[in-house]
Amino acid sequence: MTLLATKPLYQAGALAVLLGATSLSAQAYDRIVAMSPDVADIIVAVGAANKVVGKDAFNSNPALNNVPEVGMHRNITAESVLSVKPDLVLGSHMVQPASIYQRLNSLKVKAVNVAPTEDAATFTKSIKTVGSYVGQTSKANQLASRWQQGMAPMKNTGKRYLLSYDGRIVAGKGTVGDELIRRAGGINAANVTGLKPLSREGWLAAKPDVIIIADHNKPVIGSLAKFRQRPEVAVSPAGKKGQVYFWPADEFLRFGLDSPQVLKKLNSLVQ
Amino acid sequence: MSLSPTLSTKSSPVTDTAKASRYYGRLGKYLVAIVASLVLIWLALGVGFGEWSSPMGLDETIWQLRYPRIATALLVGMGLSVSGAALQALFENPLADPSLIGTSGGAALGVVLVLAFGISGIGVPLAAFSGSVIVCLFILAVHRFLGGGQMGLLILGFVISAFCAAIVSLILFMSNDMVLRSATNWLSGSMAEAGFVPLRYAVISMLAGLIILLPLGRQLDGLMLGETTAMSLGIRVGLVRTLVVVASALLTGAAVSLAGVIGFIGMMIPNLLAIIFGGGRMRLMIWSGWLGAIFLLVIDGMARHIAYPVDVPVGIVLALIGGPFFIWLFIRGKM
């Protein structure tokens, strides 16, 4: 009897906790700090740019041009975040130190890491999470669904890609670049794990059809023509066919709302 | 009295034999060094794609990748070791290395400025060379103004190098992740740039450094007896000090422009030779140059083979070896 009586009580309690949790995330926050650029882009995309009172110094989203900076996501401090009196602080795995979320929460400011890991599923989830916090759930769900569809793997092209930061370091297995290549129907020519400097003979053995390098490294590399003259590049299919490009690093460094377009761009290079 | 010249001009068969034996002994050492160098170069040419194959049938592309790397390793190892041998004598300190005269700090600053601000018109290697020479000359100029002898130069080198390191850290902290990544790789010291940097400029700079430095061997021996003794021997201490620092800057600046900031080798090699063979500073500088070149060639070849296809910065490998060596040197000094 006691057990039967307590069960509905337990269920009611659990429901109340769940509802409480839902209402907590659904609570409309009006003063939000976006500690990392990926999260800031999502907030803007779901139409809540007007709620952002602080951003990180590397944010280049034009909708947040007039928003005060609260530090750099690579080394952000609680004090600078608190200076803009936020009621919610959002960020991702990009924010360092990772303990900042715990620190802010201990100071009674709600701080959420919406994307603790760097994978496509987590990014989709982060769009929905951000939407729920800024009161734009349905818009965010639609956006997440579009993003997910856009990231659907394309038909295998069998072409080999090398995504590089500076003509040496390449995106190997387990990186965002690797995921983008595979979803674009290609093969990652970098036979390494993580972001690693590939030896010049490693470049030669990779035989890439397409090479993409971060465009901020142009001053280091020189021109594309100069890069293509490197012996290991000149003999590669990419070098012979002129399939060597400079792209913004953020396009293949991390997932972003533009990742579906990046997939199409990658795929179209070999069509 | 009058017999003395006669005695000195005449030599006994025993002395002649001893002289000939010394001559052939020296010749033998040089021959062994040359043969060992050629064998190691030949072996290093065969290392690639995670295996060893005879370098006789290398195709042109592979040859274009390997020979600059081997030449770079030899030049960098030689430049840093000769410079280290000279600076250890100048500072009368076995732990002295080229970074003490600001070359590493200056090179790092030059490179980070180029990477972070995308300064056009100057490449990374040139920035490294300019940075190292400018900071070194700045240290010399301040030392000339403030004085303080050898200890003053040592302190200035240390302080200004630390100041450069602080600016580098600040710039890296302010720049984005990608610049940080590129700079970190470069600052670790790597042979990966081999072939991108024209060797002729580095060779000219190193030759100039060697031409200035090698004839100063005897003066450096004098300096090792202390500044006062050196002056009493007629050595122009100020001039020798300036020449040694400038020559070392030319050697290490060129080395840094080829392979980034590589530590420990300039400290290790001369110490090792001084402990095993001893001898005058000129001899020590020549042999340090040889052993440094061969040592870096071997370390780079092994790193290339073991880590393929990843290009492990050789600076990291040397630091791994250098740390225990430093401790060994310290313990040995205590005993």
Describe the global form of chain B.
Answer: globular
| Assigned CATH superfamily of the largest domain in chain A | Nitrogenase molybdenum iron protein domain
Level-2 CATH architecture of the largest domain in chain A: 3-Layer(aba) Sandwich
State the end-to-end CA separation of chain A.
Answer: 71 Å
Termini Cα gap of chain B: 48 Å
CATH hierarchy, class of the largest domain in chain A: Alpha Beta
Whole-number mean pLDDT of chain B:
85
CATH fold-level assignment of chain B: ABC transporter involved in vitamin B12 uptake, BtuC
Helix-and-strand structural type of chain A:
alpha/beta
Shape of chain A: elongated
Write down the secondary-structure element order of chain B.
HHEEHHHHHHHHHHHH
Number of discrete domains of chain A: 2
Q: Which segments of chain A are poorly predicted (pLDDT under 50) over 5 or more consecutive residues? A: 1-10, 12-26
Percent strand of chain B: under 5%
**Largest beta-sheet characterization of chain A:** 4 strands, parallel
Describe this structure in a few short sentences.
The complex is a heterodimer of chains A (271) and B (335). By secondary structure, chain A is of the alpha/beta class. Chain A is built from 14 helices and ten strands.
Task: Give the arrangement of secondary structure elements.
The complex is a heterodimer of chains A (about 270) and B (about 325).
Chain A: H1 2-26, E1 32-34, H2 37-45, E2 52-55, H3 78-82, E3 88-92, H4 100-106, E4 110-115, H5 120-133, H6 137-150, E5 160-164, E6 169-171, H7 176-183, E7 187-188, E8 195-197, H8 200-206, E9 210-214, H9 218-221, H10 224-228, H11 231-234, H12 237-241, E10 244-247, H13 249-253, H14 259-268
Parallel strand pairs in A: 1-2, 1-3, 3-4, 5-7, 5-9, 9-10
Antiparallel strand pairs in A: 6-8
Chain B: H1 3-9, H2 13-45, E1 47-48, E2 51-52, H3 60-90, H4 103-117, H5 124-146, H6 149-174, H7 177-187, H8 199-213, H9 217-223, H10 227-232, H11 237-259, H12 265-276, H13 281-307, H14 314-334
Antiparallel strand pairs in B: 1-2
Helix pairs in contact in B: 2-13, 3-8, 3-11, 3-12, 3-13, 4-5, 4-6, 4-7, 5-6, 5-11, 8-11, 9-13, 12-13
